[in-house]
Write a structure and sequence with these properties.
Four copies of one chain form a homotetramer. Chain A is of the alpha+beta class. The first copy, chain A, folds into three domains: about 170 residues, Orthogonal Bundle (Hypothetical protein af1432), CATH 1.10.3210.10; about 60 residues, no CATH class; about 80 residues, Alpha-Beta Plaits. Chain A contains 20 helices and nine strands. The first copy, chain A, has a four-stranded mixed β-sheet. A three-stranded antiparallel β-sheet of chain A has the order 5-9-6, sandwiched between helices. In chain A, helix 3 packs across helix 9 and helix 11 runs parallel beside helix 19. The longest helix of chain A has 19 residues. The radius of gyration of chain A is 22 Å and the shape is globular. Chains in contact: A-B, A-C, A-D, B-C, B-D, C-D.
Chain lengths: ~400, ~400, ~400, ~400
């Protein structure tokens, strides 16, 4: 097969196993899952998909294996895992992750069931499981790599994984926001193993920091832009209604939808929110407050408590329940702080080797916001009700 | 409103009229129409849409007006026309253009009816026509500009229009194929009017040639890649069935669908082809021959004669009619050959000023191919039947 | 005049004053002063010069004035200052700055004497001062702007100046190191004045941080790369010898040399070091220690004390004095920490608004190194002597 | 050694032989030879050198060998030849090529004498010849490869060589002119051998054309820009005077100078022209006419006849001889027309497979210009004299 032209890595050559995997329905479906879900409502050119991202991750995994000088049958398994690492995503990726988890107990990186050879498929197609079997690949090893298990699992999913090396650069290229343009060539060359731990070799504290900083800047500017968050919360709420609708898809059906299937399903079953999302007529911020203003009990809300709060606020504000969305992100975390770097011959966690980690943690905390969203017309009444219900000291 | 970040032009600032137009359903729909329809099946990162392309064309129109030193109320009209120039496209853009034309007699650049203020819309949205009216814009002038009429219509739609200046660069950026990276800064600076004709000022024969060459190289590599052509022909055929299906959408409904609506509609009403397109299980080339091998009568086929040929070939090959697609592109043309360039003080057509035009014409002719496509399993029988039906001298 | 094509800003259009200034000998000389002096010995494609950088700064100053909505005669002065801000640099820019200052008491941003109309020049050329006079420009105002004085002086030289917006992106483009790729479009749009202070408007703490982070990453990776520092220290030492040489150029002559004049002069007057620099046969690190290991007295050394130390180390090590170079950088500073940002309606210094500033300060401190360099053959003996002379606790 | 960061190819890893070659004086000298000589007077950011270009050619040669699946000891020879292919260039590269050839009979790609191990060098450096010997490399084979001899010589120097693949992209990156941005990844993957001839494999006529077109567009816009040609002609004339000057360098010394040595030598020995070049006070075009207006006899002039004409024109115009420069470029040629491409299983020359070649030939011919240059003040009198002396029918 001819190599594939990619906007980020130029040409990507596939091994025969990868070629066959790419042709499966489960992988082709990724053409229809956008990498950045609702971010495109803020950055209109960010329409890239998990399909080309997965090809990019495959490509970087292959390069990482070369630099790590690994040459045995682990290579095929790692490359397959890199290629398949996102097939467990539901429509709109991370946006539906919580909902699916609440209903099924499965995270997007738990793909064991998707690798079974006998999944339903048209007679002239092959499932991922069948392809793996034909090529003598152990599907449990692949699933474990996707979960980040084992030495090489860290390359696929961990603080230094090729996943983020690809998505930062790709998101920068397609959104036009330059902050994600990291030096992945340097990162790949600095990878090594010390006692089974994936590390950056000596002299690379700053290389590690650059990855961290790129993600922090992209977080604030792109990934957590408030417009994208509002649209995402609306989508999540609409999906809850869709899944609860008896005429709607089952959760198992739901999690295999593509983005476009979901948009059409929403328009049919949840028309008000569906059309708003499709046409970008978004709710506005009624409340938008920092972590220090939020009572501890509220920080700990699970989704059902959020729903209760939405109902109570709606009732008090005199608006339909669907016109109040409470959006409480998890406490900020910096996964990359655990990146291991060799300093003076000793493996250290990045948070111990770099002053920046603590500062970024504080910065993330300072950027954190609880949001309550409502249609423009009811923003004022919803704000008042929310302040009351949450016992907020916010006056503005 | 904050300026919009764009992957190609960095920041795009909108005037108040443009802001209001962007918020209409007709414009938001462009988020869901891909710029390059089926090309993404070959170049997986080419997922950009007519939404950001239209913003880019708006931006370049504004810059062109500055360089042309136009400052009166024509500016607002030209910018509005640039922004709206693609709202007449059906789903999958050019791919459904012929079909819509055969049923309605309307081309995609005929947007008069879409500018009527009283088009159906939800109560809380405004139509394009209403927005234009509010801002005192003459919608007939806008529609005329989109058709390329008048002096400034040439800036919106003509051999030197800002449409192609945007799409060449944008398609290059998102596909990763560099050939389209023209120097639009230079082109814009070279624009001028001589006797009401838009020209490139003296010293710019090569600037004009570069535009021509970029398009020729993108044609061969991207726009007319055979895989994209096959997928496009399958899509077109599937759409014909969809529109002919009594349970399917009316043509008026059809032309306002988004890409994702179409994919879902096809899966429901034309499931075999629909799924093939969605999953990229494409037909293969049974026949692929150059212009010199095609009898003149066949070159002149209209779509209904193509359909007859498909039926006859299918019957002879013993396969269902839907498994044969005949794809006869129009004779190659080079619209840019009419570009006017000032040479030695005289306005000349580029084809008279440049030897390259003739050569590109010959090259386009040499690249032209008639295709007959069929599922892999029936390629051989379809080839034989097609050779016979068309009376081709092809033996291979 | 046709606009100038630039690798970073595409096209740069000059006003008539700027055109005339570009044609002066003082400005043309900048073609022969590399932007990054010895960095090219590490990043071979970093050969860009202060000529195109100055054009870029002019261009960004012009855009800043537009966004700040300034339209009176200050514009011409600011643009002229932006264009001329680097004409005071000696050969190899910052590398000869200290030496020139020690001899003349003048910093590179003190250009008053260079703006005098009657400077020596061939009869068919005009000086910068003459050009300014012809165009009715007040040269004292220009010199003050270059020193960063006054409201608009902050745009030319300050924490938020267009100088660094240009050089970060340009250095990234030409070196290939992506970290400097800031979003200058966003920075320019966020500029404003509050009570005569240049600030970033509300919502831009992260925009300010991004500038800071870009510079921090470029510092570590590019600007202070140890190979560049060694070459720079060798160059500085060689220049001291050159200026001290009675047959060499006077300091006034020296500070107007170009890079190539300097290389040739060094080869003639300081042949050993000169040839080493030209052919990249660099000294190696005999000592390379962090700030916590350096006795406070040594941190405070001025250049003549450094020279004394070099002599003492050389004597003890039994090598010629020119084979020991002591390189003690100033204490790390983060000028950008004073950037003013509007937060909740109040102007704050970035260091008060962002946790990152403190962390970067700590990171800069952690990266700081005192170096002692010597030819490879004498590294060991020099190391021993230096440890002894400086009373270091270093054993390795 | 760490890989080298490059602005075009990201990271370039060197084999041990290449590392040692890079450290030789002959190779380090390339840091001081600009790739585009006088082009930087038009495109100010085009300051890249033959040093990084040579590294890039080495890198592409290595990739070409991989795609061609060559694995024996030819690889080291080819990579060495790629690295060293430009060490034979005099100062300012092609600009001094004719002059050196007239005096020595040696072209820049004739590097045999530079590979002799016993060339003069400081005691602590090694010559290229010594390095080759140490690594067991046959220096005659390397020299032959640089001359383009043998099967693999075509990869180093031929119609499809990696030299032009690097310089087109590099010149585009550093000048900012996009036309040279070819798809070298695709070209490298398409290389193959048929009967000992380097060819592009089937399906690549357009790939070949894209290379040709990129060079044609760069020729007109960059390489042969009239300002660069004037500066180049002035430089060449100044070098003639320098070499003829008894106090100046011998031709053998001259050809080993760096760009900066030459600038300083010119200022000393040919001060008028030297200063003009350094400060960009260039002659203007007194005559600038197309090929159809030039008498055949004049087209055939060698340099001494050009000199005679300059003298005669100067005398008639009453100006010093050095104020007239006659610049007659060779007849236009398109070397790439001989590129071999596989079409329908047969190896064809590109000029037979593509209509574009003929058109480009005509376009090159149409762009060809004879120039006569003089200082602005004497342009008119020189024009008149030149028209008279050359018997031109030019009246304007």
């Amino acid at each position: 097969m001819a190599p594939i032209k990619d906007s980020v890595h130029d040409y990507i050559s596939l091994d025969p196993l990868a070629e066959a995997l790419v042709d499966t329905p489960a992988f082709q479906r990724l053409r229809h899952i956008k990498q950045l879900s609702t971010v495109r409502l803020v950055y209109p050119s960010a329409n890239h998909t998990r399909f080309e991202h997965s090809l990019g991750v495959y490509h970087l995994a292959d390069r990482a294996l070369t630099h790590l000088e690994i040459e045995d049958d682990r290579c095929e398994h790692v490359r397959a895992a890199a290629l398949l690492h996102d097939i467990g995503h539901g429509p709109y990726g991370h946006q539906t992750e919580d909902l699916i988890y609440r209903h099924t107990g499965r995270d997007h990186d738990e793909i064991t069931d998707l690798l079974k050879p006998d999944r339903p498929r048209p007679s002239d197609e092959r499932t991922v499981g069948e392809v793996l079997e034909t090529h003598g690949i152990d599907r449990d090893r692949v699933a474990a790599l996707v979960r980040g298990e084992g030495e090489l699992g860290q390359v696929v999913s961990g603080e230094l994984d090729v996943d983020r090396m690809d998505y930062l650069v790709r998101d920068a290229h397609h959104s036009g926001v330059p902050y994600g343009t990291i030096d992945h060539g340097r990162l790949l060359r600095a990878l090594g193993f010390v006692n089974g731990e994936l590390v950056l070799e000596a002299g690379n504290v700053q290389t590690a920091e650059s990855l961290l900083l790129a993600r922090a800047l992209m977080n604030g500017t792109v990934y957590r832009h408030h417009v994208s968050r509002i649209a995402g919360a609306m989508l999540e709420r609409a999906c809850e209604q869709l899944v609860d609708d008896d005429a709607g898809p089952s959760i198992e059906h739901f999690r295999r939808l593509s983005d476009h299937d979901l948009l059409v399903a929403l328009r049919e079953h949840v028309p008000a929110l569906g059309r708003r999302i499709e046409r970008r007529r978004l709710y506005k911020r009624a409340v938008w407050i920092g972590i220090e203003s939020v009572p501890a009990g509220i920080m700990a809300f699970d989704r059902s408590e959020e729903r209760d709060a939405e109902r109570a606020i709606a009732e008090q504000a005199g608006v339909p329940e669907t016109e109040v969305i409470v959006d409480i992100p998890p406490r900020p975390q910096i996964k990359e702080s655990a990146t291991r770097v060799v300093v003076d011959g000793v493996v250290q966690r990045l948070e111990d080797a770099s002053e920046l980690v603590g500062a970024l943690r504080a910065a993330e905390r300072a950027q954190w916001r609880l949001g309550v969203y409502a249609p423009e017309a009811s923003v004022d009444s919803v704000r008042e009700a929310a302040i009351d219900q949450f016992g907020l000291a916010v006056t503005k």
